[in-house]
Amino acid sequence: MSESDKPGALQDLDARLRRLKAQEHPPERAGSPASRSGYGFAMRLGVEIVAALIVGAGIGILLDQWLGTGPWLLIAFFVLGAAAGMMNVYRVVRGIGGAVGYRAGGSGPDQGQRSGGPGGTKPAGRRPPDDDEDA
After folding, report:
1. Domain limits of the chain?
2. How many Å apart are CA 48 and CA 44, to the nearest integer?
3. At a CB cut-off of 8 Å and minimum separation 6, what does 35 contact?
């Protein structure tokens, strides 16, 4: 059935569906979120580092004021905050800790061969049932 063979009701329905699809999924522009995904990722990495540094420095300042230890705890917690920020960036880049149960690489004990027997076919930690066990 070609466009000209359709009855009027089907042509009207087709026109309405096309109009609704165009409203829901407009064509992507240069400033759309899909084109800014790299920018958003870079912003997240920057925020991870800065937030960890601020938290570390804040804890160091508060402990220094409370204990009267001078700048030593500020320096120590600033370094710890920097290390935590770098670790958070590493986790974000590697995809570690995304969703619960998510493994980005597909490697690990749940993937591939299982241990426990020749060829890796038996589940780990189980033994075959004995024929003489009735219980």
Report:
1. 36-96
2. 6
3. 28, 29
29-83: pLDDT as tens digits? 555 555 457 888 888 899 999 999 999 999 999 999 999 888 999 999 999 999 9
The token pair at 15 is 């026109």
Average pLDDT over residues 94-103: 64
Q: What CA dihedral angle connects 8, 10, 14 and 19, to 10 degrees?
A: 60
Cβ atoms within 10 Å of 52's Cβ, excluding its own: 21
The pTM for the full model equals 0.48
- Name which of 37, 36, 53, 35 is nearest 89 in CA terms: 53
The three-state (H, E, C) secondary structure of 73-120, written as one string: HHHHHHHHHHHHHHHHHHHHHHCCCCCCCCCCCCCCCCCCCCCCCHHH
Distance CA 80, CA 60 (A): 10
